[in-house]
Amino acid sequence: MLALRHKHPTWGGRKLRRRLKDLGHTSVPAASTCTQIVRRAGLLNPAAVQPPFQRFERSAPNELWQMDFKGHFGLQNGQRCHPLTVLDDHSRFNIALSPCSNQTGPTVQHALEQTFALYGLPEQILCDNGAPWGCSDPAGHYTRLTVWLLRLGVRVIHGRPCIRKPKAKTNASTAPSPRNCCANTPGATSRTAKSSSPATDTVTTASAPTTPRQPPAIAPACAVCPRHCH
């Protein structure tokens, strides 16, 4: 086993075990035992060991919201529904579950304006790096939506690229409900279901977040601005 590990330094316990069995060895230990043997031999790179998952939660409502689109699906009227979800990090209250016709900045801004009017402004919003809140421009420009949020005093933060864990809460909280959010949209019924329950049926029962800050007058979005201007 150690000779095989020396030959393939990136192989872990499961792959080493499978390869040994493919080579005809019959007394092969479990994958976890193979890993321990490699570790005791000093052949396991400490950097390759994943640290235990650490749960994070903000100390109060409206300190951090998490925002994401949950894909899209076709409707019987020929249009597509793009469910927009907003989750409060502390209470896990589903701040918004909006059926959108697209994933553009103006559409998200309109949905957020309605949400801010109900729950006030968060201190921060966590998003991924995709459109319309992310920007792949190497010069480091903000999108129009991000500029609008910054002018309201809301800091926009992004998870690391290709890392899904920071927004696992939004993924878990809205897993059963993206299609249900279109139940309240006139003339928009999912192709996969003849009837759907309202989106409010799927919202968590946690208490609603407080509203420590109220939104100021909504300023129009400006042109894309460099980061150092804000």
Question: Would you mind describing this structure in some detail?
Answer:
The protein has helices spanning 2-7, 13-22, 31-40, 105-119, 144-151, 168-173, and strands spanning 64-69, 73-74, 80-88, 94-100, 124-127, 155-158. The radius of gyration is 23 Å and the shape is elongated. Strands 1, 2, 3, 4, 5 and 6 form a 6-stranded mixed beta sheet that branches. It is 24% helix and 14% strand. It has 230 residues and is an alpha/beta fold. The chain is built from 6 helices and 6 strands, in the order H-H-H-E-E-E-E-H-E-H-E-H. Helix 2 packs across helix 3 (31-40). Strand 2 and strand 3 form a beta hairpin.
In short:
The protein has 230 residues and is α/β, with parallel strands linked by helices. It is built from six helices and six strands; from the N terminus they run αααββββαβαβα.
For this entry, give a set of tags.
disordered C terminus, Nucleotidyltransferase, domain 5, 6 strands, alpha/beta, 14% strand, 230 residues, six-stranded mixed beta sheet, 2 domains, 6 helices
Layout of helices and strands:
Elements: H1 2-7, H2 13-22, H3 31-40, E1 64-69, E2 73-74, E3 80-88, E4 94-100, H4 105-119, E5 124-127, H5 144-151, E6 155-158, H6 168-173
Parallel strand pairs: 1-5, 5-6
Antiparallel strand pairs: 1-3, 2-3, 3-4
Helix pairs in contact: 2-3
Rg over CA atoms: 23 Å
How would you describe the shape? elongated
Proportion of residues in β-strands? 5-15%
User: So what's the CATH class of the largest domain?
Assistant: Alpha Beta
How many beta-strand elements? 6
The number of distinct helices, counting runs of at least 4 residues, comes to 6
SS content category: alpha/beta
| Total of domains | 2
Helix % is: 10-25%
CATH topology of the largest domain: Nucleotidyltransferase, domain 5
The average pLDDT is 74
In whole angstroms, the N-to-C terminal distance is: 56 Å
Order of helices and strands: HHHEEEEHEHEH
CATH evolutionary superfamily of the largest domain: Ribonuclease H-like superfamily/Ribonuclease H
Q: Give the second-level CATH assignment, the architecture of the largest domain.
A: 2-Layer Sandwich
Largest sheet: 6 strands, mixed
The low-pLDDT segments are 185-208, 217-230
